[in-house]
Amino acid sequence: MISVVVCTKRPHLALDVIKRFKNQSIIEKELILILHTDGQLPNVQDALREYEYKLFNMNRSFSLGECLNFGIRQAKYPVVTKMDDDDYYGGSYLEESYYTLINQEADIVGKASFYIYFLERKELRHYNPVQQNRWVTRQGNQRYTARHFLSGATLTFRKNIIDVIPFSSLSQGEDSEFQMNCYYSGMKIYSSSAKNYVYKRYPERGHHTSDSLDSALRRRSRFIMYTADLTVSDQ
């Protein structure tokens, strides 16, 4: 049904990735875990024993885009989702993503509207509230802009897309360039609901590969609550 590709440069988060994968309600799934590191590798085989999985190590000489292309090509299923190693995914995340792609007959599904959690303040906000449950399609000669962007951590798409439009050999911005190329090629892109996913914003300098600033994320979002319970985003 669906293959999950996760590429992490933080091997200590591998068991957290596996826990989130196990918690997904969808039954027919596999995990493709790429450890993007030159360091010591964790022992994760025991944690994955009852599940379909493929485990790879790619050193830091490879870009993130190259790692993603490699992982996607190993996928068993025709639908692939790209997940991050450090965000929150509700138990119905894969199910929502898969069936939205199938029911909408889309090529790519993701979330242009999603929740953001600022860990330092335990503050939950809703980013781009009006950009959910809608098509992201090119009208005439319309240019690709930031408002067309789906969170790179929420991309679900048909595996054969990368035969035509692979991820670029980049370690920053590879997901936005992939989306832009798909947009200009006329692929059908759909923004699903904001539910079942939270972008966790860490205060540590250098943690995020994205160049987004906290101030910009706040301007484009509205306050929901202060909380330590991220399952509220699943409602």
Short note summarizing the structure:
With 235 residues, the chain is of the alpha/beta class. The protein has one domain (2-234): Spore Coat Polysaccharide Biosynthesis Protein SpsA, Chain A, CATH 3.90.550.
Coarse shape: globular
Number of strands: 13
Q: Write down the oligomeric state.
A: single chain
Largest sheet: 8 strands, mixed
Query: CATH fold name, please?
Result: Spore Coat Polysaccharide Biosynthesis Protein SpsA, Chain A
Total number of helical segments? 5
Global structural class: alpha/beta
- Average pLDDT taken over every residue: 91
Q: Roughly how many Å is the radius of gyration?
A: 17 Å
Q: What are the low-pLDDT stretches, counting only 5+ consecutive residues below 50?
A: none
CATH architecture verdict:
Alpha-Beta Complex
